[in-house]
Amino acid sequence: MREIEIDAQSKTPREVNHEIKELAKDYDRIILKNPNAMHYLIAGLTEEVEVVIDGSAGYFVGTMIHEAKIKINGNAGWFPADNMTAGEVIVEGSAGDGVGQGIYGGTVVVRKDVGSRTGEIMKNGTIIVGGSSGFMTGLFMMGGRIIILGDIAEDAGESIIRGAIYVLGEIKSLGKNAKVEELDQDDKKELKELLPTYGFDLDDSKYDQFRKIVPRSKRPFYGQESEEG
Amino acid sequence: MCGIAGVVYKDKKLHNVGDDMTKMLNALQHRGPDSAGFSIYGGLGLEDNEYLLNIEVKEKPGLLDTVKDTVNLTTPIKTDEIIPSVENFVIYRCKISLDNFSQLKPLIMDVDKLENVMVLNGSHSFEMIKDVGSVLEIADRYDTRSKMGTHAIGHTRFSTESIVDRYHAHPFQTYIIPDITVVHNGQITNYWKIRDPLERKGHIFETNNDTECIVHYVADKLSSGYSLEEALEQSVIDMDGPFSYVVGTPNGVGIAKDQLGLRPGVMAENDDVFAIASEEVSLREVMDTSNVEQISPGEVRVYEI
């Protein structure tokens, strides 16, 4: 494996991102030291490369990446992995609002708690939260899956259109167009295969405690299909 | 978009909070380039009846003497200094004594009647520093890094509606009760609904800035017997719009966030320090931030010493 370490100290996000994009052509693994919660890190990286952020990242870390894998050895601010199309963003600490906002694919993992509106307008892909998730998780979600191992706050699945939110802990309240279902065997199998992959080793009995938030209607705003304009 | 921050030392002793807040605000500089401000509590060391006035005075022959004469009509100036600022203004800072706090606002209103003069604030237990420009420019201008205190709040401003000047920089202060200040990120969309009952109670508004409305609101609640936490909780119920704001009082700091959580707020604490800010990058200036907590929509946090 070809690995290189770079230092973000005294550099702008644009300089750091440019350097990483150049290095990604020749290296498999890039370690970024002294990130100091900088915003916009690793924006738009489309190489199959692993980037380790050795500390916390600010807003929009990994926005619009494709195929890149990012590991953050700290916390992340608002909107980590925003609009990602493929790849992986793993946050070892906590994260702010809008985790995985609008993603089209790939996987986002946050080990601890996250803020509000997790997975808002996501179209596909997977978001796993090791802790709890805040207000309006899955807002206007249009596909994919969100898995919350802690509690989920008020208005979960607000205006959800497609996709599913799996919750192990308490569901504070549901949003408009959201309903709760029990998991079927396929759901449990899917979670049992997925979660250990990211280091979440749950007892078998825990998988029986998950509940699933799904849409009540696929057309909650515009009525019947015949009314489509 | 603005940046807000607060820091409290739990041991109640004097620390270099001016330097802490300078670093915290500089880390938030990208959130607001227009102006910046500090309320640094606990380090002034004034006697019980003493107050510090910060007065913006245009550089004009004789005007400073007129200001001094106006203050001296109410109470003799004990000490004073002049701090150079920008745009042909200086900041005249003087120490005075008053028989009671209720005399402070009338004195300020008398001085404000002078043309090209504006009292930025009058305080007993905290030092307010606010001006136009970047955090580091203001820090150099007012030597904020040397200021000692027990706790502080601060702000970097990105103006949305009201004008960019020294007076509209945050923090905003109220004179309903002593030494309450507020820094704010966001908008209060039911501003007039909040302001009207406060004005009917006799509270005086000097601007149309929604942050001034918050500080009067919180002080009004505190003067009605609410705890700081209760006042902030009620504000989240009463106020509409996207906001997070930080309050400083002689005893501590608090943060409140709107019910939809549309403005950021994070906090971290250890055995020594409690800190709140718009972003983690600011908290990192005063402590290890391995455990950063997001302030949830509608949530308030308070730390009092």
Task: Describe the overall structure.
The complex is a heterodimer of chains A (229) and B (305). With 229 residues, chain A is mainly beta. Chain A has a domain at 94-200 and 211-217. In chain A, 9% of the residues lie in helices and 26% in strands. Chain A is built from 2 helices and 11 strands, in the order βαβββββββββαβ. Chain A has an 11-stranded mixed beta sheet, with helices on one face. The termini of chain A are far apart. Chain B is of the alpha+beta class and 305 residues long. Chain B has 2 domains: 3-44 and 126-304, Aminohydrolase, N-terminal nucleophile (Ntn) domain (Glutamine Phosphoribosylpyrophosphate, subunit 1, domain 1), CATH 3.60.20; 46-124, Alpha-Beta Plaits (2-Layer Sandwich), CATH 3.30.70. Chain B has helices at residues 17-27, 63-74, 104-112, 135-142, 191-200, 210-223, 228-238, 280-283, and strands at residues 3-9, 35-41, 50-58, 79-84, 89-97, 117-123, 126-132, 151-157, 172-174, 180-186, 243-249, 252-257, 266-269, 273-277, 293-294, 300-304. In chain B, the strands form 3 sheets. Chain B has a 7-stranded antiparallel beta sheet. In chain B, a hairpin with a 4-residue loop joins β4 (79-84) and β5 (89-97). The longest helix of chain B has 14 residues, at 210-223. The mean pLDDT of chain B is 94. The A-B interface holds A 36-39, 56, 58-59, 74-75, 77-78, 93-94, 96-97, 113-117, 134-135, 153 and B 30, 260-261, 264, 266, 279-281, 284, 289-294, 296-297.
Topology of helices and strands:
The complex is a heterodimer of chains A (229) and B (305).
Chain A (H helix, E strand, L loop, with lengths): L2 E5 L5 H11 L5 E5 L16 E5 L11 E7 L13 E6 L15 E4 L15 E4 L12 E7 L13 E6 L10 E5 L2 H10 L16 E5 L14
Parallel strand pairs in A: 1-2, 2-3, 3-4, 4-5, 5-6, 6-7, 7-8, 8-9
Antiparallel strand pairs in A: 9-11, 10-11
Chain B lengths: L2 E7 L7 H11 L7 E7 L8 E9 L4 H12 L4 E6 L4 E9 L6 H9 L4 E7 L2 E7 L2 H8 L8 E7 L14 E3 L5 E7 L4 H10 L9 H14 L4 H11 L4 E7 L2 E6 L8 E4 L3 E5 L2 H4 L9 E2 L5 E5 L1
Antiparallel strand pairs in B: 1-8, 1-14, 2-7, 2-8, 3-5, 3-6, 4-5, 9-10, 10-11, 11-12, 12-16, 13-14, 13-15
